[in-house]
Amino acid sequence: MEFPLNLGLQKTGLPLIVTSGKLKNMCFLIDTGSTHNTLFDFVYEHFKDEFELLDCTCRTMGIEGHYKETPVIEATFNFEGVDYTSTFSVLDATDAIAQVQKETGIQIHGVLGIEFLMENKWIIDFETYNVKCND
Fold first, then answer.
1. Cα separation, 55 vs 89, whole angstroms
2. Which InterPro entries match (predicted)?
3. For 50, which DSSP code?
4. Which among 77, 86, 98, 109 would be 20 to 30 A from 22, CA to CA?
5. Whole-prediction pTM
6. Which residues of 106-124 are buried (b: 16+ CB within 10 A; e: fewer)?
């Protein structure tokens, strides 16, 4: 399967996907430079009942470059008719996300990092601006 990234790239210059299902219209940035998946804390607080809080923490470098101990959750979302489940660090990145929203007009709810891409065998093709899913 292939999914286009054109819309996010054209509107914001960022590779974005938008979820459907229970966690509808959540916007995730695909970030090949991120070792962990991240869900921003304002999203976690709003949808807390939809996530499973795991009994562990993760030491994560935030967008601002500072290390933080963060809770870890398991989340399931739907994208293009497929359910995906992965773990996410819950991170407060309010200032950085506000700046992205100010510059692009888009509110980002989290980041899908290398962990997610490898678990789900997603390959980003920047020649065709598609995500290829090899499942």
1. 12
2. Peptidase_aspartic_dom_sf
3. G
4. 98
5. 0.90
6. eebbbbbbebbbeebebee
